[in-house]
User: Fold this.
Amino acid sequence: MTNTRGTIRVVLRELGYFFKGAALNIFSWEFLTVLIPLVALWELLPQLGVVPRTLIPPPSDVIVTAWDLFVHQGFIHDIINSMGKFFLGLGIAIVTAIPLGILMGWNIAIRKRTLSLFQLLAPIPPPAWVPITIILFGIGLPMQTFLIFIGAFYPILFNTYQAVKDTDSRYLASARMFGASEFTLIVRVYFWHALGALIMSVKTGVAMGLVMLVIAEMYGGRTGIGFVLNEAKDYFQIPKMMVCMITLGGIGWFLIEVLKFIELKLAVWKGGAR
Amino acid sequence: MIEAHNVTKFFSVVNEDRTADGATALLSVSLTIEDGTIVSLLGPSGCGKSTFLEILGGLQEPTEGCVYIDGKTVLEPLPATRREMIRYRRRHWFLSPLANSLFRNRPKHDIAMIFQDYAVFPWMTVLQNVTFALKLRGVKRGERKRIAREYLRKVGLADSLRKYPSQLSGGMRQRLALARALSVQPRIILMDEPFAAVDALTRERLQDDLLRLWDETGITIVLVTHDTDEALYLSDEVVIFSPSPGVVRNRFSVDLARPRRRTDPELLVLKERITSLFRYDIIHESEYSI
Assistant:
């Protein structure tokens, strides 16, 4: 009983650290001196008629539309729907690309047999996969998941492989002298040495995955942020488009902050004093 | 006992104008190191002494010749003929012969190695670094912490068990490396310029610590250094290497009882002889290079 309560307390404390850190990261006093005038300018220029209000709606209009979207049109369901697909695609990319990257970085025999294949496939821009994916999977969840997976897979794979390959040979030598098996080396040396780059690669994967999420939903979908965005274009609802864009930006920023926090927690040794 | 028979190491290199070339790092080095002694390999940089140490430890294979530790071969040289090479490649296509087994932790020889730049794992705490080494040597879970604490106390790191190496000074990191190497109770410790990266005062203290621990355990120590004072103060025998190609130039026994004084006249006489040897090498370089 005390144990669960202790765990809850630790989780709450860490969550507190996370949100405080994330908020401080972006809303510093120095940045607010830039942000507030910018928003004020955005509000004032359309209001004063310097730019047409129909094309560039001021933030007040955007907030009103956002309220309407979230309260009356169930936009939150679109967000949850999009995030579900996104995490499915990103998750599949992470659980395939990271082990594969580690294997490729670890062993030259595996690397020689696989790297060229990925180097040939990776330059294909992920949006170019859209038509064939629609034909193969139809329109729906599998197609959208696959597109997000394709976007996130290559950056994660290549960064992981490169980081594992560049593992400092001194660490390997010293572990080998003590008799470490190759499996132990992977789990206790290669992985930890590459950890920073691994998280960096997932950050890139998040960015690419969001790109592919929007593309997938625009081309084939009946729900999701990308669909709402595309629909708003058809009805010329510029404030609605802005709400979608800001939401996407916010999601990306939040996920990067989460990854930064994970890095901070896992790579304690880099912080020095603690 | 470590026996090296005609160890030769040849590197292929690519020149600046992109022509292939070779460099002989070691040429026919034969050496016998008795149990329980401290032997220094001394020479200017680039004379192949570090390469020789890595061959002793089995981290590189010799091009020719062989190293035996207690009669067991450390690493075979690579095959010379094309046909043998093809067969060899087929046998080792997945794991290189330098690699250890795939799943089971098992040291090939009872050796520990200490590197110049510590090579302690920065992602493990001081205690974890030592317990990890013990785990690799198959020490039971319950014993690991006790042994690790014991050896960390011996090198004076008992208060920093939970710290990470980045929070330690250079001398402390080298102490940690020393504790880690000693904790697995090896019969031989190979040291590659262990005290080169710390300041002079710390170096003298570390040398004294090393001698004290050697006295307690009676292991064999092979020490690579370019510091003549260090070699003479620590070792029973000093082996002089000379560069391009790396050959054993000379061997000096230091038959002084320990504890020695750093300013002992006999050490100074030996030092004078060694430095004059190096000076001679520099002046008559052409006669000694092949």
In short: The domain at 57-269 of chain A is CATH 1.10.3720.10 (MetI-like fold).
